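Researcher: Quick test of sequence recovery. Tokens follow.
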């Protein structure tokens, strides 16, 4: 299975590079960048959320179809942290329509669902104020922030993503028919678990709720926790498929 991972605001797919050390024969990690970032740095930025979803969907579909040339029935799932959660769900829904197959599930962590998004003033902060927020949030390595040139470089993509996040409420009506796994960190001051669970309104399928220790960035910084959850989801799916197959064969006898 391929797990397509979407980063938090201002970040690139490089945040998932350490995850690849934990890959198994059954699980491949695929970080996904938006245009103008990371592996897609030469492409023009996109400032419209739905156009961004379309672009990232095309990227994921192309990768999945290429991988299926080697493994025809390869499954997929998505993971998104914070800002990336909305992309995880929206891209998963769009990929399902494009390839005619739902993902194993979409995994969302540490994010408020669209209808609970407050009006965010972050995009209007000065560079200095935005840097203070980056420091306070704690998701960026201190050595990067210590480099003044790098710190200034980090401001632009973060500002762009906060402007995009203002568009999230327009996705309040999004509904999918595949399951979600919702991950909340117990010490997350930004997204308490009771609000994280509200994402279940976006799926008609059963949703799994998981709490892990740590603060807002724990799901990204402790990949072992998340990949153990994903492995459990794969095993549950395999068991459900096996039961369904057995019931079908029994009905035919």
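Model:
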């Amino acid at each position: 299975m391929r797990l397509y991972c979407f980063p938090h605001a201002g970040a690139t797919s490089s945040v998932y590079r350490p995850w690849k050390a934990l890959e198994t024969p059954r699980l491949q990690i695929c970080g996904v960048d938006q245009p103008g970032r990371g592996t897609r740095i030469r492409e023009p930025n996109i400032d419209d959320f739905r156009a961004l979803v379309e672009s990232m969907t095309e990227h994921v579909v192309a990768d999945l179809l290429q991988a299926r040339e080697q493994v025809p029935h390869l499954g997929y799932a998505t993971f998104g942290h914070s800002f990336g959660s909305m992309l995880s769900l929206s891209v998963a829904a769009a990929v399902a329509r494009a390839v005619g197959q739902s993902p194993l599930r979409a995994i969302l962590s540490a994010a408020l669902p669209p209808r609970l998004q407050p009006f965010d003033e972050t995009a209007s902060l000065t560079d200095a104020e935005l840097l203070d927020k980056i420091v306070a949030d704690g998701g960026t390595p201190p050595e990067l922030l210590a480099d003044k040139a790098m710190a200034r470089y980090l401001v632009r993509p973060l500002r762009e993503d906060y402007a995009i996040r203002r568009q999230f409420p327009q996705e309040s009506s999004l509904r999918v028919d595949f399951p979600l796994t919702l991950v909340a960190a117990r010490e997350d001051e930004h997204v308490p678990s009771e609000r994280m669970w509200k994402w279940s309104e976006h799926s008609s399928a059963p949703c799994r709720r998981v709490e892990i220790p740590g603060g807002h960035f724990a799901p990204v910084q402790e990949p072992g926790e998340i990949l153990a959850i994903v492995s459990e989801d794969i095993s549950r799916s395999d068991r459900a498929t096996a039961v369904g197959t057995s019931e079908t064969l029994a009905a035919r006898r």
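Confidence is low (pLDDT under 50) at residues 242-253.
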